[in-house]
Amino acid sequence: MRRETLRSANFRVFLTPYPSPLTFLTLFALLFALVGCAKEPPSYREQSFVFGTMVEVTISGEEEARARVLAGRVLADFDYLHRTLHAWEPGALSRMNAVFAQSPSKAAVVPGLVPIIQDAARLSDMSGGLFNPAIGGLIKLWGFQGDEFKPQLPDPVEIGVLVQANPRMADIVFEGIQFYSKNPAVQLDLGGYAKGYALDLAAEYLRAQGVKGALINIGGNIIAVGSRGGQPWRVGVQHPRKAAAIASLELHDGEAIGTSGDYQRYFELDGKRYCHIIDPRTGYPAQGVQAVTVLIPRGNHAGTLSDVASKPAFIAGVKGWRAAAKAMGAESAMLIDERGEVYLTASMKKRLEFQEKGLVFHEVP
Length: 365
Fold this sequence. Notes:
The protein is α+β, with helices and mostly antiparallel strands. It contains ten helices and 18 strands. α2 runs antiparallel to α7 and α7 packs antiparallel against α8.
């Protein structure tokens, strides 16, 4: 796990999803250009590369030595979760996937995975199946279970076979300490859940330690703990086609924000972009959308919901995104379509401050 520590007394976090470390550094430079000479309380900031993305933990109002210990614990927990929930590298989840493939074979389950999988199943049901962590086989078929992606299309016949098999979270069965799948096509990939789950764990830990101000960012999924010297945290929403923010907003205690985009894990072939967000109904990457952002109010599992709720809206597209977000409890949401036009709810519009001029807006109830 790569870890870097940075500290500044004049630091304002401007957090966005990071397509690459280079893009991150570009955004970081833009951040300091925006902050200028603003007087803010000192913060300790530590960053790492976990869950396949840039991770940052910023703690405000603590002595540096204590903040370092707290941030280190959070990042160590993230690293453990990453190894445990990795879909294809050796770990607890990959062992479960091997058992699923031998259905109806049974095996003993790692106890800590049960509530995670049951919660992911609950959210999948809420989404009408658009959020479906059981389609790891499709994600692998498209080449997105790896660090590099080859610009090639899978065999349509293989796609059709997996879609027809219809793997669902409801196919997973727990019986005491054992588990199995009713469908051998089930292959779990919790990439659209794990980051949000990790946010909730980190926020809970820091609150229990008496931290009054912290901001945790996992690749653009962000949760706020307390405030920064009595003021809300200001965060940015990544522009899907530029190394900059398209908008910013104040994030209050307990709120979480998350973005799903077609610009982090994707490849292009014959002028068409194929991203890692797969529509389980068709077996193909969702099209027509560049990004979806959701803002989740303080409550139980706000971090998890910030990670999950954007996926169904992204897959549902321009025609169905609002209903999909609402079904997940995300009243404040924004979609950017393939032309760069912005669709957003009235409550989201009130919160965002856009940096770019000339945007086309569509406000929805």
